[in-house]
Amino acid sequence: MSIGHPQQVTSPEPSLTELLGGRGGAVDATVPVAAFVLAWAAAGALGWPGQPVVWGGGAAVLAAGAVGVVRLRAGGRPRAVVFGLLGVTVAVIVALATGRAADFFLVRLLGNAVSALAWAVSIVVRWPLLGLIVGTALGQQARWRRDPDLLRGYQRASWAWVLQYVVRLAVFLPLYFADAVVALGIAQTVLTWPLVAVCVALSWPLVRSALPAGHGGIRHPAERSRPRPE
């Protein structure tokens, strides 16, 4: 029975965008960063009592808490809110422990490095993370891996996610070692949600580029016993 109905071919595109989440979470992640940099810079310039990094850390935690409250009231997932607040708190603790404001960004730097490696390894071992994320969200378990075309599409699209982490590292690392706190804050804002938005927008076209005409898309993987080699 054919699964190449025109509506099935075109419908996965918005569904994939929804599954990957869009820009909302990435925008939220920049708010505590902006709060940290602004409070840190203001404390240093205006001579507020205490260390500027303490002011920046306090502002970041308060901003993360405020974002969390807004998300919860909007129906966001509590686990995502807790993880977001925890990440900011850990970053603040690191900066307070070292007394170096640039170390507020150290956790994010390490996170980008680990993420780039994890996504790249997942592609090489033929378990692309994009396929795992989408397949889990759709309740497909590993059925998508038995479709060689869909597997190849997820591999192609996953490289876009690897690239975004590499781009961030290429920009962040020189600024981190130069102790350029304000520039790090600006770079974090500029290279967070725009890059995520680009990856989300490119994911479906990259997946689709590997699918033959008439393929049912991400919702209808073709069951085959063994994936073809890349």
Automatic annotation (TrEMBL):
The chain crosses the membrane at residues 29-48, 54-73, 80-97, 117-138, 159-177, 183-207. Pfam families: DUF3159. It comes from the Bacteria. The keyword Oxidoreductase does not apply. Keywords: Membrane, Transmembrane, Transmembrane helix. The keyword Transmembrane helix applies. InterPro entries: UCP010219 (IPR016566). This is DUF3159 domain-containing protein. It comes from Pseudonocardia hydrocarbonoxydans.
